[in-house]
Design goal:
This protein is α+β, with helices and mostly antiparallel strands. It has helices spanning 59-93, 184-197; strands at 99-112, 118-130, 135-139, 144-149, 152-157, 162-164, 168-180, 200-214, 217-232, 239-241, 243-253. It is built from 2 helices and 11 strands; from the N terminus they run H-E-E-E-E-E-E-E-H-E-E-E-E. Strands 3, 4, 5, 6, 8, 9 and 11 form a 7-stranded antiparallel beta sheet that branches. Its main location: membrane.
Length: 254
């Protein structure tokens, strides 16, 4: 069989080259969706604010609150227990304050020396009464008793240590001594006071630490504070001074 000859078109070498034409016309968008300028506008941008949820309380804070509540509860419980115990003790023992009185005042020395210093020595007789049926009183050391005229301390001393039982009355004679410098004006004031009123006002102060005994229980130490106002006829030496009137006030300090 004769071979089929393939015929190929001959290319004109002298013909000018044909320019390549782009698939998309010039000035048109390459997207197949059309012109983006004529496309639908995008929706406006809206900022999304995240929702903040409250965090649960921390475990440490809750533990601290529980501790504070427990402490407050314990304090309140202790106060209630102490109040109940105090009420029971009051009903059982019926405590009453002691009573003091100044029965006698003797001046053994009261004179002014050449240097205008005043030397005073008194003997004071004091009666202490314990009106309680079931309470005893221990008078401890460290007490202080003093005699004053206006704002000047004339003499001082101390009460002895002793125990005062139930419904007991104890009488004490306490020596007092003291010295006051530049006492010329003080002595003149005493004499003028005596001439105008006929008496001399003095004050006796007592600070006494004690321990209270309830049955067989000896409690902690407290202080008795006694203030007695006395009007005496004079302060002349070597005489028993007559006490015209007196009044004593008693206080208790923890």
């Amino acid at each position: 069989m004769a071979d089929h000859q393939r015929v190929h078109p001959a290319q004109d070498v002298e013909a000018p080259p044909t320019p390549e034409v782009p698939l998309v016309p010039q000035g048109a968008s390459k997207s197949d969706r059309g012109d983006p300028a004529q496309a639908a506008p995008y929706p406006p941008f809206r900022r999304t604010i995240p929702v903040m949820h409250s965090k649960p309380p921390k475990k440490r804070r809750s533990c601290l609150c529980r501790c504070l509540c427990c402490i407050v509860l314990l304090i309140v419980l202790q106060i209630v227990v102490v109040a109940i115990a105090g009420g029971v003790m009051y009903l059982v023992f019926r405590p009453k304050l002691p009573k003091f009185s100044v029965d006698k005042l003797q001046v053994t020395q009261f004179n002014v020396s050449d240097d205008q210093s005043l030397s005073a020595t008194f003997d004071v007789t004091i009666t202490a009464r314990n009106p309680n049926k079931k309470i005893g009183i221990y008078y401890e050391g460290g007490s202080r008793i003093s005699v004053w005229y206006v704002a000047t301390k004339l003499c001082e001393g101390a009460l002895p240590k002793f125990y005062q039982g139930h419904r007991n009355t104890t009488r004490l004679v306490v020596p007092l001594a003291g010295q006051t410098q530049n006492a010329g004006a003080l002595l003149g004031g005493l004499q003028e006071q005596q001439q105008q009123t006929g008496y001399v006002p003095i004050v006796l102060r007592v600070r006494q630490p004690v321990r209270v005994k309830l049955g067989k229980l000896k409690l902690f130490k407290v202080k008795f504070l006694v203030r007695c106002r006395l009007n005496v006829d004079s302060l002349s030496a070597n005489n028993d001074i007559r006490i015209r009137d007196s009044s004593c006030k008693f206080r208790l300090r923890l």
